[in-house]
Amino acid sequence: MPRNAVIGVDIGTSSSKGVLVGLDGTLIRSAVREHTPDRPGPGRFEMDASVWWREFGELSRELTAAGDTTVVAVGVSGMGPCVLLTDEHDTPLRPAVLYGVDTRSVAQIRRIEKELGADAIIARGGSALTTQAAGPKIAWIAEEEPGLYARARRLYMPSSWLVRKLAGAYVLDHHSASQCTPLYDTHAGDWYAPWAEQVAPGIDLPPLRWSGEAAGVLTAEAARETGLPAGIPVTTGTVDAWAEALSVGAQHTGDLMLMYGTTMFLIHTVPEPLTSPSLWGTVGALPGTRNLAGGMATSGAVTNWLRDLFTGADHTELTRLAAESGPGANGLLLLPYFSGERTPVMDPHARGVIAGLTLSHTRGDLYRAALEATGFGVRHNIETIEAAGGDIRRVVAVGGGTQGPLWTRIVSDIAGRPQELRTVTIGASYGGALLAAQLVADVSIDDWNPVRETVTPRTESAARYDELYALYRRLYPDTMATVHALAAVQDR
């Protein structure tokens, strides 16, 4: 007799991932569809929403092809905040503008800050206005593509678009809304109409629910397209990093989640709202939770870039060579700002820098320097979180970068923090499956996904990394004028 199970699907930057999970948390099956965002110009990252729905259908059919399960609920998540605008019939008007990796909205940020006041935006919305926020992205479309914008009526993100296709519902979760600065009031827990009408005129913003609430049930049409049973509940969903945090139980006060992926994301759960001009203050995925969050624009993206440059090498070989290189990468230092930088630098015009190169440096040294750059960026964010009033008591790691021991070891050594690793580190899709399971059963993440090991920092590396971290912090201001000039050349 087929066992009951749930499906979780996450739409990420470089792939869509799906999992089929038993109600006891057992990972029955997983599947992946890789994709590449479009880059129509410097600092621009977009994706067609048809990719998200097509890949969901492919994943759901692959996961259930064996016929050994009965799917009883669906959970979704996706990269964000993204901006997909549709007309009143839910026809997408253009490809979605992606989250903070897309830096096109600098002029709109300046204008909106001048009109609303930078301090007022932080006070009401929890975050400074940056290229991460959805509000300026909407404003960019309104200003640069006015004919198209005149037909825009609805706002979607990857997770809410899947909900629309699956359940026919127009809805968004509170956390995603809180990243739509300055449209959302984090204190009132609702859209702030005066600013929404000013920044996103004509858009009928979606009703809001919490991530684990049911948005509706699978329609008959969606059942035909996905192979899933009609009538099963579909979660409201959320942004991928917040689903990642749920997948490893990092939602308690004092927790910090580190998400190792194409980008690095950090989510610290706090007991009351905290704000910082260098971080993002948001509501959490669950009712009553608050977060202070950060994100690096690249992490795994840089290691992928190096892999592609080094013909014939793969990550396994490069990781082995990086381990042989040893702490400090034989005197190499890398700034990982290859797509600008998000927190705490908040500089869309930042660029990558590799300092200290000699003719004796190897592929392993360069790959090691990239891994260490993530560690230095994490340490910089942690120090900024704590300076803003955060109290980090536990660090939990998740994501593809936790699969091998080297990267997490390097980050713990540099940041001086132990990291818990759970049994399942697949991430957001598993978190989405958990929320789906909680719609139909009484389950907890500690039962589903217990801790399997803790990576502790090594004291013998501390002095070396302290010295290099000081140089890392100096390297950005010392090179800023040069890389800004180069960014201007690239943007021509």
UniProtKB/TrEMBL annotation:
Domain of life: Bacteria
Name of one Pfam family that matches: FGGY_N
Keyword Ion transport: no
GO annotation, biological process: D-xylose metabolic process
Entry's Gene Ontology molecular function annotations: kinase activity; phosphotransferase activity, alcohol group as acceptor
Domain Carbohydrate kinase FGGY N-terminal: 6-245
Cited PANTHER family: SUGAR KINASE, XYLULOSE KINASE
Name of protein: Sugar kinase
Species this protein is from: Streptomyces calvus
